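Example A, followed by Example B.
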Amino acid sequence: MDADEIVLLIAVAAVVVVVIALLAVSARRRRLRRQFGGEYDRTIDVTGSRRDAERELKARTERHDQLHIVPLSPTRRTQFRGRWDDAQARFVDEPLAAMSDADQLVQEVMTERGYPTGRFDQRASDLSVEHAEVIENYRKAHDIALDNERGRASTEDLRMAMVHYRAVFGSLLRDESDDRSTVDTDRYESQRRA
């Protein structure tokens, strides 16, 4: 082999390595987008860079993998559902108390399933790994709760918080082996309209 052939071989090998690296990055990006949904874009906005966002989401996943997340027993799911129904029914007469109950129930289910329940930001990060489809609901409900503490939440805002909490609660209650365990949102909507 002469020098030109060696240079060409090295150049081709370098191009192959770059293409493989780009394909790996692209596959990781697609996997994170699929796993985190809208949380992927939100994290990019918060961190200011795609690389930092992907690093953050990977760290969340690694932290989540260290947690011992367990499904609820059928008995506990039924008990929690009953308490949720009570909180919903309470909303008509005591919207503030009902919203507080809803937030408390979400945290209790998180605790029982094995999620840490420290600061809100950490709870949201931990939930986003397996519950990305409802994490925006959790953030919105939390924002309304904060507005309420400042005296800036209307009854309609509180109703929306309940709807958001219901989505999170249902996702947390769901056991992959029993998709029927979600909170019955159609029933809630028909009760609300009645």
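Example B, a separate protein, is given below in the same form.
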Amino acid sequence: MAAVGVGLLILVTLGTWQLHRRDVKEAYIARVEAGMAAEAVDLPAALERWRSGADVDFMQVRVAGRYQPGPQFRLFSQLQGVSGWQLVAVLASNGGPAVLVDRGFVPDELKDSEAADLPAGSLEFTGILRRHRAEQGLFTPDNDAAGNQWFWWDTGAMAIAAGLVPGDLPAFVIQRTPQAGDPDWPRAVATGAAAIPNNHLQYALTWYALAMVLAVMAFIFARTGLRPPDRHDNQRDE
């Protein structure tokens, strides 16, 4: 029965941890919704808030400038089950610093096509600020800056690869949002609370249900498997 007790403790702990994760995720979703609901600000105003230490993640921002010529960074991604790349370019903003812009997704077979080329000239668009922390997952491959294959965000290394001083590049990426008249590729992806999975309650209920099943099975075993031998059964055996 000691093993049963350990199993119950593990299952209940996992369920409770998932409830904690749900609370954290719901707070994050609320922050996303607040940022997306606020009116878009100009990039200089967003930079001022960022320098003051304010939370700018998911802030909507209006951007004006032109892309710097040169290769775009390719960040491995998937869209609706299709493997491809997020195209990340350096944009010289009007009257401001250079910033990284996530232009959108292209399938792998289009990464070298005209569809992926940078538009020339001045442009204006709306996007959201994203604070992508430089964290490599346990099973995530290493970034290959020389081969221009990136598997996790490292804006400092991207700045160096672009010939910039990392400290001159704001510690966020502007994720371009879908605009009227956009081409098919690269495809900007709408970001919002609806796109953030929050299945932690279901996971918690699953762990608790497994704990209940284990407890019931242990109870049945204790009532049937450990009872004294029936006297009539012994007589039949004789």
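On Example B: The longest strand covers residues 82-93.
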